[in-house]
Write a structure and sequence with these properties.
By secondary structure, this protein is of the alpha+beta class. It is about 30% helix and about 25% strand. It has a seven-stranded mixed beta sheet, sandwiched between helices. A hairpin with a 2-residue loop joins strand 3 and strand 4. It is elongated and about 85 Å long. The N and C termini lie far apart (about 85 Å). About 25% of the residues are buried.
Length: about 190
């Protein structure tokens, strides 16, 4: 069986989820599911998040701090991975745990309780079982969607203040014989 390992990858709209997985040499990598494919990236999940954010001019620490501030929440916060494309991921447990799964809420079709676990149906037709109660997992989805909504609203400023300026008569500043420009004309106009 051939295992595809990519050196780098940037999280995109079709990214469904990612999680930590050790490669055959014992190095922690990121297992990414994007569309109908799954592959290893030679970076940890947190490095992959930071790589994606850094590529567009942000960083993971700032994204985490921003999400905590917007949501007034301190742990297991979702983060905006790409504000331009509206991509948000949320962790199902502490992001520092190797078995943490980062989900893109856009690709979650349905969640179902299976005992104390949650069956998550994904947009690519696959399902994954998560060690989480249904209510807790659904709260994480709702929190991620709330972060996206609030961030998009704040970023787009839906009610901007618009100023209409009347075109003024054209005036020209000219250099007088003294070597100075006639800024006094502006003062005269103010009166």
């Amino acid at each position: 069986m051939t295992i595809i390992i990519q050196k780098n990858y940037f999280i995109e709209k079709k990214t469904i989820l990612m999680m930590g997985e050790y490669n055959r040499y014992g190095k922690l990598c990121a297992r990414v599911m994007a569309g109908k494919s799954a592959f290893l990236v030679n970076r940890t999940p947190l490095q992959l998040l930071d790589d994606t954010l850094t590529y567009i001019g942000f960083d993971l620490k700032g994204a985490m701090m921003g999400a905590k501030s917007v949501l007034d929440k301190k742990v297991k916060c979702p983060i905006i991975v790409n504000p331009y494309l509206g991509i948000c991921l949320f962790p199902n447990k502490s992001p520092h745990k190797v078995d943490c799964i980062w989900f893109n809420p856009e690709h979650i079709v349905k969640t179902t309780a299976v005992g104390i676990k949650t069956k998550v149906e994904l947009s690519n037709g696959y399902t994954i079982m998560v060690d989480s109660k249904l209510s807790s997992f659904n709260d994480k989805i709702d929190t991620a969607n709330r972060l996206i909504r609030i961030s998009m609203k704040r970023g787009n400023h839906p009610n901007p203040i618009i100023f209409y300026l009347e075109p003024r008569k054209e005036h020209q500043l000219t250099k007088e014989e003294t070597g100075k420009y006639n800024f006094e004309a502006l003062e005269e106009e103010q009166k």
